[in-house]
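Design job #97: recover the sequence.
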């Protein structure tokens, strides 16, 4: 089983930046599609970004497109989410997730993901 651990969350002012990391252990995730999801207070968890196992394909929610960048370093078994121009509405718990697929395109749907981290809090406030 893959264990995913997120880090890098915190409190940041509007317009600021944060970089989240998702470190995988117990198994190499170089063959896993990986994604980031978030859940704001009182709301359902939603898709943020996804990246294919090769890193060649990335997908973003419209709400973060142009501000967030997902990337991965398979040598370090780690996935990243660079978040720029943060807004108060980006406040949420951010979760890393992953799954193995024979297809080259990562899913944006939560049920596709088999492994989840515990989440890291991101708060955007002045």
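Job complete. Output follows.
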């Amino acid at each position: 089983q893959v264990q995913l651990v997120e880090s890098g969350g915190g409190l940041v002012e509007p317009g600021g930046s944060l970089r989240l990391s998702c470190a995988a252990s117990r198994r190499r995730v170089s063959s896993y599609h990986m994604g980031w999801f978030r859940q704001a207070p009182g709301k359902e968890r939603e898709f943020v970004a996804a990246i294919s196992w090769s890193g060649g394909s990335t997908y973003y929610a419209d709400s973060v497109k142009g501000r967030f960048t997902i990337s991965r370093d398979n040598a370090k078994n780690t996935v990243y989410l660079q978040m720029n121009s943060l807004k108060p509405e980006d406040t949420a718990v951010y979760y890393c997730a992953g799954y193995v697929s024979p297809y080259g395109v990562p899913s944006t749907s939560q049920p596709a993901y088999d492994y989840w981290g515990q989440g890291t809090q991101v708060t955007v406030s002045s």
